[in-house]
Amino acid sequence: MSGDQFRDKRYLRLVRQCACAVCKIYSHDVDPHHLMGRGSRGAGMKAPDDMVIPLCRAHHNKLHDRGAKIHTELLEVWGIDAVALSADLFAAFRNGTADMDILNRMRAITMSHRGGE
Fold first, then answer.
1. Whole domain around residue 91: which residue ranges?
2. Of 78, 70, 64, nearest to 117 (Cα)?
3. Does residue 99 form part of some domain?
4. How far apart are CA 8 and CA 12, in angstroms?
5. What is this structure's pTM?
């Protein structure tokens, strides 16, 4: 991609329709959480959109309230391999064609990855 970070509103919209990677609940308040330190080019820079996982607002806020060091540790405590999950979700998006087909694959992937408090 010639050094540009991947940005795609359609992809983020589909991620928002997945269950939270931690509590596995489908909700209207699921946010795509950009993985810190993954593909970002500097402090305060957001990671590319292909490096996101779905988190409900409560779990998303809990991560951001804890700071960068605790951030990674908390994902591990929750049993989430965030890098693998984000890669699997993006592969489903990249390899699909119709939004419903992609969304069904992404939802199955999210539910199959470990997670929970």
1. 9-112
2. 78
3. yes
4. 6
5. 0.85
